[in-house]
Inverse folding.
């Protein structure tokens, strides 16, 4: 059967500084993201879907100061009731609202460990395969100097390096 994957990055570019309260435009953007998630998930027809929610702590933080958390929880309940598979992801799972990870909703937790050096090397190699790397770029050394990095960190690293290289070429 056809399986469609919908990925919603809930926090990207919206709540970049957790010490500040989001302004009205940011709140409207988050509400729009949740509404779009619910609409996309419920309009699927015969297609089987996996809904992936990334950065759920942006809308449903554990500190209880989450005006949109009930809306997200309701959307997830609707999606599950409609037969959709829902995966909620967070880099900091201890900061997610307890209602979202309650039994019967998103009750399973899967913790992924940090990638080891060989895995980081493979990730860096794959992330940079579309770049024109010099043959002497020490991917093993880079992997060795990036303990504690996750995939997102390595993506940022590779993109930053590519941008710096492009700037050097233009200068």
């Amino acid at each position: 059967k056809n399986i469609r994957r919908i990925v919603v990055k809930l926090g990207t570019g919206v709540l970049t500084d957790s010490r500040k309260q989001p302004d009205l435009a940011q709140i409207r953007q988050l509400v729009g993201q949740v509404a779009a998630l619910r609409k996309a998930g419920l309009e699927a027809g015969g297609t089987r879907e996996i809904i992936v929610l990334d950065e759920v702590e942006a809308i449903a933080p554990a500190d209880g100061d989450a005006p949109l958390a009930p809306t997200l929880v309701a959307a997830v309940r609707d999606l599950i009731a409609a037969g959709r598979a829902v995966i909620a992801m967070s880099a900091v799972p201890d900061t997610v609202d307890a209602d979202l990870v309650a039994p019967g909703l998103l009750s399973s937790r899967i913790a992924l460990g940090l990638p080891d050096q060989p895995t980081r090397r493979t990730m860096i190699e794959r992330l940079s395969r579309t770049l024109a790397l010099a043959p002497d770029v020490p991917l093993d050394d880079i992997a060795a100097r990036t303990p504690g990095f996750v995939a997102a960190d390595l993506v940022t690293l590779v993109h930053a390096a590519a941008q710096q290289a492009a700037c050097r070429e233009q200068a």
